[in-house]
Design brief:
Blueprint: E1 2-6, H1 11-22, E2 27-30, E3 39-46, E4 49-56, E5 59-62, E6 68-73, H2 85-104, E7 109-111, H3 115-121, H4 124-133, E8 141-144, H5 147-156, E9 161-164, E10 180-182, E11 198-202, E12 208-215, E13 218-224, E14 246-248, H6 253-265, E15 270-277, E16 283-289, H7 295-301, H8 305-321
Length: 326
């Protein structure tokens, strides 16, 4: 049985479930946010063995039947409504810790990886370091909260810089901070960097931007014509269907191999990698998202990413059936 951990409104999981249904596979979709208010999990140790059960929707599921876990978009446990303040925070925190610990006892294939591995793989500086070791070209980068280092980089590149946030934190109201150019007028506030670390990089001229989705050993690359629209020029996440066309792209073999190896070295079985193709045909690495969205790429290009993910999840069942290790 495949365990899909995600929220109710996840179209990626919907697509995967449809594919699993076509293959007559067994799966369970569950949102950890239901613990402890609408669901319960019991982990029982006795006589050197462990038994795990999930109780939800009026039924009981034997989690020992799970062969693979897909950490898609699991929600964070929500405390009972009658609890407030520090008690609510305590219950939510304890529930989140317990649920995460329970998944760690499942010695099965995990996509993209066990949660601690995913959290570590999200560190952008570590990504850059590994990418450089593998031979990827990188933009010259300064990260931190030291204004002079940013000024030095600004002067070295004639003011052609971009800035982006260090982590995945959101601003008030859930707003996302996109990648932005650094303007001369921004230097008036450069001392503000001391208050919050930032990543600043030399601007890389773009012919195309590439979204490379790695699923196991498979590589699916899509080219984004981000330079046709001004609002996507610095960050294609402001994606515009009309002006930012997308199409499948054939990566050179060595670049594709680096993408797979970077994903592997980060401990991942899945990764969404952002590259830039420069006007003189150089491939420049930007970052990798261990849980990046992909359905929009599949819908725009026809690349069979959902099928590849289902193949990966079902491979654990096939291996177990033939007597191997998952």
């Amino acid at each position: 049985m495949i365990l899909i951990l995600t929220q109710a409104d996840d179209v990626h999981a919907d697509a995967a479930e449809a594919e699993l249904g076509r293959r007559d596979a067994r799966w369970l979709r569950f949102d950890p946010a239901q613990v402890p208010t609408r669901a319960s999990i019991a982990v029982h140790f006795a006589d050197g063995r462990v038994r795990r059960t999930l109780h939800h929707d009026g039924g009981e599921v034997d989690l020992d039947e799970v062969s693979a876990v897909w950490f898609r978009r699991p929600g964070r446990p929500v405390p009972p409504a009658h609890l407030t303040g520090y008690l609510a925070d305590f219950v939510a925190g304890e529930s989140a810790t317990f649920v995460g610990d329970a998944w760690e006892t499942l010695d099965v294939l995990a996509v993209p990886a066990p949660r601690p591995v995913v959290q570590r793989a999200q560190y952008k500086l570590r990504q850059l370091q590994l990418a450089a070791q593998l031979g990827f070209e990188l933009p010259e980068t300064v990260a931190g909260n030291h204004p002079d280092a940013v000024l030095d980089l600004f002067n070295a590149h004639g003011g052609h810089l971009i800035s982006k946030q260090v982590g995945l934190n959101r601003l008030g109201g859930g707003l996302v901070r996109y990648t932005e150019p650094v303007r001369h007028r921004d230097l008036v506030h450069v001392e503000g960097i001391r208050q919050c670390p930032v990543i600043v990089q030399s601007y890389v001229p773009k012919r195309l931007e590439l979204r490379v989705t790695v699923v196991g050993e498979r590589v699916y690359a899509a080219a984004i014509d981000s330079q046709h629209a001004h609002h996507t020029r610095y960050d294609w996440r402001r994606y515009d269907d009309k002006n930012s066309r997308m199409r499948p792209w054939d990566l050179p073999g060595d670049v594709a191999a680096r993408c797979v190896e970077l994903t592997r070295r980060l401990g991942l079985r899945y990764g969404a990698i952002d590259l830039v193709l420069t006007p003189d045909d150089r491939y420049v690495f930007l970052e990798i998202n261990p849980s990046g969205q992909y359905l929009w790429v599949e819908d725009a290009t026809g690349l069979p990413i959902t099928a590849a993910i289902v193949d990966l999840l079902m491979s654990a069942t096939a291996t177990a059936t033939t007597g191997g290790n998952s």
